[in-house]
Write a structure and sequence with these properties.
Helices cover 28% and strands 24% of the residues. The chain is an alpha+beta fold and 99 residues long. Strands 1-2-4-3 form a 4-stranded mixed sheet.
Length: 99
């Protein structure tokens, strides 16, 4: 059964944690894009957030994550370690790169 963002939101945190890495970004891309938009809506006031990508994190092997690129020179941001059970990978001022 294909996952939707609405179904994902209704899962418990425990279920999200156990199913996060089983999501297929190629088949369930709309879920990943909706999580990206939700991240932006919750954290848009944080200074220095340059880019957000929810999908496969490069350099980690096939690993579903939310990659947040922070502008070079910005101070620390206050972001959770996970967002909707997607581990956060933090990049700093890496133009044209998802880290």
């Amino acid at each position: 059964m294909k996952m939707t963002f609405e179904k994902w939101q209704r899962l418990s945190v425990k279920e999200m944690n156990s199913r996060c890495q089983d999501l297929n970004p190629y088949e369930e891309w709309s879920v990943f894009k909706a999580i990206e938009l939700e991240f932006w809506s919750r954290f848009k006031e944080q200074k220095g957030i340059k880019k957000v990508h929810c999908g496969l994190g490069s350099g980690m092997g096939p690993f579903n994550s939310i990659v947040v690129t922070i502008e070079k020179g910005e101070k620390r941001t206050q972001l959770p370690k996970k967002f909707m059970s997607f581990p956060k990978i933090l990049g700093r001022g890496c133009p044209n790169s998802l880290i």
